Amino acid sequence: MALGSELKADVDAVVTNGKDLVNEEDNNDSGHSSINTPDTTEDKQIDKLVRVTIQPTCGEAFDLHLSDSELVQELYQTLLDREATCHRTCFSLHLNGTPVDNYSEVRAVPGFVDGCTLNVVDEPYTIRDARLHLRQVRELLQFGLNFDQHEPPCTNESQSFLTTINLQPDEKKEPKPSDILPPDHILPGCKDRSLAHLVVPQPKELIALKDIAFSPFNPPPGPRKLKGDVLYIDLTTVENRVYHVTCCTRGFYVNNSHDGKFDPTQSSSNKVIYQSVIELLQTVSAGLKKVYPQIMKRRQEKSLVERLPSSYPVSTWVSNPVKHDSYTSDSLRAIELTEPFRVGFEDHMPGLLRDWNEELQTTFEMSRKSVAERAVRDRSYFKIHADYVNAAAKGVQSILDGNILAINPGEDKKTHMYIWNNIFFSLGFDVRDHYKELGGDAAAFAATSTDLQGVRAFATLEDPKLNTLGMAIFDYRGYRVTAQSIIPGILEREQEQSVVYGSIDFGKTVVSDEKYHSLLEDAAQQLKMLPHTVISEKNGVEEQFKLYTSYEAKGIVGNDGRKYVLDLLRSMPPDVHYLEDAQVSDAAKELGYPRQFPHKLSALRRELVDLFCESRLVAFIQLTAKKIRDVIADAKEKNDEELIKQAAEAESELSVVFLAISEEKEVETKNPIVQNAIKEACVAVHSIFDDHYVMKFNPDCFSSNVKHAPFENLERQRRVVVDAAEYLLTNQIPELIQSFKDCTLQPIDGDSLADIMHAKGINIRYLGELGRRLQDSNSFARPLVLSDIVARSAKHVIRKINVQTPVDQLSASTSHILNCLFSVVSEPSPVPANSTKKAHKKSGKKKTNAAWSTLTTASLWKSICEESAYYYGFSIDAESLDKFTESHEIQKTALFRRVCKIMGVQIVARDYQLDTVSKKSPAFSEDDIVDFYPIIKHHQPFTADAKKMFLRGQHAMSVGATREAYECIGESINLMTAVYGVMHPDMPQCLRALSRLAHVLGETADALNHQHKATIMSERLIGLDSGNTIIEYINLAHFAFGALLIPGSLRPLYRARYLMNLIFGEKHPVMAQIDANIGTILFTIQEFDTALKYLQSSDSISKSIGEPRKLKTGLIANLIARTHAARGDFRAALIAEKETFSIYSELYGPNHQRVKESGEYLRTLTQQAVSFQKKMLNPDSNTNINELFQVQPPPVSALFEILNIINGIIPGLANLAALEKLQNETAEESKATEVAAQLDNETLD
């Protein structure tokens, strides 16, 4: 089979996950600029590559090549990464005998030239240096240990499963069947969905040291301090010997302290002073000396992508079983994790707290005129923001653990506010009835999310002139906690004195400031907000004020002179479908809108606003042009020369007029035809004004709290908002539904579904609308949408219960709730599951009356159904979860995973057998609940230049400029690395695109390398079992197959299939894709029996979900036919190939090459079947069983082409000569004999 001219049109689109959808709000460039001249050299100083020799104090000198724009600090990190020098931390770099400043660029160092030598000079220790040194020693030795069970579940450390998969074959050994054939739980139709396979297998621990502890004799007394003593340390070796060590300014030595007696003088048996603790231990501990090289080897085997911490906190919902006997003592960890006053920066900035607001605003305001300046600004802002989110996450956990005192401790707990580490924390409850009329606690909870959306919107403006607060939202143990940076002086003044713009009494009185008007004008234009005039009454006097935002937005001038804008919860127009008394369109009324909702703060998404305005602009241009064309046609018909002349002038003006309108500039035209056409088009598209096109939104037009000026045309302003909401219902949702049915969008789990909905401008509250439109279809999205409705409704119910549950009952309550949901609990649980009546009598405690204890399966399911109907407008008719999952083909394990992830619950990874659980015994126990972790939402800073380059690369790909696309996306990754560092959640998508381009260009090794990094990043940053990770595994397998790594290509596919079966089930187009890949590769290596199972599974899945018949379907049917033929089952082969012929004929018509090839193959099959039958019916002594199988399978190049089509890649076929040899291997004779015996008595039609 050769690549036909139709391939480009017929290749399936790349599987689209939520992570792959580029949000237009984050990109000010359309991506359609010149591909050949990317704008990345603007005012950019050319970097030079220099070679420098570094002479360390231990080990040999080495050469290093680096850019002269890098900081000297990077050289320090290089020394800390090298095996020979990583254990030494207290040093400085000297050039020509002069110390070099750590934070200066290389090019700025006097005397730094190509070929120079830097000498490492040991520096005297201080307490800070000693503590940092011990932390480095601890981190080095932890490479030999397994994941620490004492660490909180939300940290910057995460694991990758891919590192346990060996892609490279062992050349010394022949591959075993177990290396190639799938394990039982990967086979199609298998119901084994144990979570035990999900977690990363732990290697054997390499214990080099039992403990490092600060001696109780610290701090050094005055006389010893004057002799150079800095710190005293106790080291417990693996030989169970305790060494008392003194850290002095010159290093570390063993002292004479013993048995509680203090003697810091140097031991007579060991008189050496060592520069590092590792060097000291290597002389006193034979165990460490033996194990340390193995630890270093394990460390060096890990790439930077595997071992570097993530920028933001990450967490996982599963954990290895907790074994108390495997707990390790670690005195340094005990200090760091049990002192709530520690903020994490003490060792770096002793005695100081970071001023988060000043750092965030200073970096945000940095110059961004050139690419180089923007890169420095973006890197600084991203680093500060990441540190801020990490600090806030630690603060939230400490607050709910009760370790931080509220600033208003005497008030009700729900009203408590906290200040910790210069961050302000508040709980998501309605404090003092501020939101009473808007929905109470529900409105207060939603206000934080809409406020964050506003902060994100203002942060993405091209040239923001106003400052916003650093903000992050945490959902933890049922609570919503908002973290904000503190405006200087805000705590010292009354609110009335602080606000100079907006309203503090919900619109009753409004203040405004001309200075804010000039700053908000550009922001309002970019965010499509309509300036409007409101009336404020104070002391009986009415006054008019112009607002560019909602009255809820507040302008505050801080003591630092900066102008801040906050409370941006109404930055987007309201969603009238969820305002009970609002007017809606006729189409919305037919669908049951407006409907009741828990709060009145529902707003449309910015993505929808942009899409709606774009569609209206297109409609306006088309209507205007049509009107002028109609005038021209009418003038020609009447032969009116004057009118023809005017119309021709109007037509020539159109391009100028449309350009001015698209750029939101005033249209200057005196042509009456153009003026009339514009007026008619404005009326048709419901423009705000009659005589010129304006499509903007007044966020206050439906608010009853604010009084508008009489000249404001509220009817038209409301009509635009109604039209936008109608556009969501009549355009965006049907388009999304159709994309699901056509399988052009393929979300895998609830997270990717949410990302896709948001990219389309659809709010999560419309899940019920999606569910109603999908519940009677056979689309793969039906179980996904319906299970997400149940999971989110369960979250709402459980969240209210968790808020009322004491900490000491959380494991009991959570296990009971999960049992009520996934097992059958017919009676309430008055006491925790692991308690007994006797124990309660002994303790004197009464039976608890907590809310969770009264739950049963029936009551919980009833609450979930009520919440689904109330919040999502979706009625669940099933009487139980079992009936619901059965009727909609929802997999319980997938629903269980989703519930745990959105609740923030970490559980033990084991087989819960949810689909086969005995109704009499609970599936969960208290010991299965490991911990809770916070769900974090925040504004993620991004590098606009990198996104522009990525979009240009995608555009270049679409026009076939592969090499230019490769360069653009490569430059995008370089920019991301310069800003984010080695890892970031946006980078897997770019690396995947780069891998595909490298594959197309024939650079197989580069493609495999890039994809390997992308997969590890996805696992560590997005999730071990995320939908994005599954896609990365599929691509990795494809490139491994192209690199001739057959077992290495199957193992990622087996992992992808397990994950897919776990988080969704089998009836999904991605599962069909995975099975098609596995079947094709197994067919290549002539494992026909197993290959047939996967190929048939792929075909069956595609048919069951109604996936459209296309080239991929025909190719799989052809492969099934060839597999049957290879097994000797010619009847089945003929049936399958007839289907192939039918598909090709339907797609291409009778004269296409593929149709002719399929017809030829049908004739060949028929001939071979007849010949086979004759020889089987009349065997003789000369009959060779192997000669009966004369149907030759296609060459491997054709099979690889099939994989390219299945996975949506159009490559230049390369590196396939070695694969061709695999086709020449003969099938095993025993297998052929078995097939012949099976067909011996069959008669073919």
UniProtKB/TrEMBL annotation:
Domain Clu per the UniProt entry, residue ranges: 329-579
Matches recorded under PROSITE patterns: CLU
Principal localisation: cytoplasm
GO cellular component, one term: cytoplasm
GO molecular function (one): mRNA binding
CDD domains found in the cross-reference section: CLU-central
Subcellular location: Cytoplasm
Keywords, in A-Z order: Cytoplasm, RNA-binding
Ranges where the record places region Disordered: 20-42
Pfam families: CLU (PF13236), CLU_N (PF15044), eIF3_p135 (PF12807), GSKIP_dom (PF05303), TPR_10 (PF13374)
Keyword Cytoplasm: yes
Gene3D superfamilies: Hypothetical protein (hspc210), Tetratricopeptide repeat domain
GO BP term, pick one: intracellular distribution of mitochondria
Domain of life: Eukaryota
Biased composition (Polar residues): 30-39
Main function: mRNA-binding protein involved in proper cytoplasmic distribution of mitochondria.
Similarity remark: Belongs to the CLU family.
Protein name: Clustered mitochondria protein homolog
UniProt gene name: clu-1
